[in-house]
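Hi support team,

I submitted a single chain yesterday and got back a structure, but I'm not sure I'm reading the token output correctly. Could someone confirm the output below corresponds to the sequence I sent? I've pasted both exactly as they appear in my results page.

Thanks,
R.
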Amino acid sequence: MAEIKDLPAVEWRISNALVDYDESHLFMEQRVASIREGSEPEQVWLLQHPPLYTAGTSASTDDLLDAERFPVFQAGRGGQYTYHGPGQRVAYVMLDLKNHGSDVRAYVHDLEEVMIRTIATFGITGERRQGRVGIWVEHNQGQEDKIGAIGVRVRKWVSFHGLALNVEPDLDHFSGIVPCGIAEHGVTSLKDLAVKASMQDVDLALRQTFEAVFQRQTIDVA
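Hi R., thanks for writing in. Yes, this is the structure output for that exact sequence:
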């Protein structure tokens, strides 16, 4: 394991109830400002949303196939359309990237690495693909499906938004959009891949891999 950086611990927060998107977005805006000012610590917030679609800054209206199915939010992050809902673990990662080389590309790579190592805990091989953001798995005789999405925003070197890992969501809910603008591939989940893992199991793996990849200690917060 890489040596832990000599920096304050990152808060690790888990919400068990579904969190409205507007509530989470307001919190991130406030916390990012506080991190930038040095008045509050960095935080990773694990949560689930009610069913909804978010549009990133590159989203095309052609990729919103059913605008009436679920609420649609303008996320302000990079990327295109993404689904969030129950059974999907969202991690909002609010870090001061000056502590991590001030390198956005490396930061995204590290988020990908967190997901790759997390699903490897459950025997699933996740891979990056050139030109496709997120984490992909190959199954069903060569079919490639997306199991984890990434969408980030950085303001004055402080990150927000983050990653979304499909644990056991209703995969039919993705059919109202073209996920991340990629129509030729589908989506999958740990459950779809016959992995029996609870959200708590996934949370533990995410925490361990976050600490290893980012070389940071974490501390529980209510």
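A quick pointer for reading it: The chain has one domain: 10-221. Let us know if anything else looks off.

Best,
Support desk
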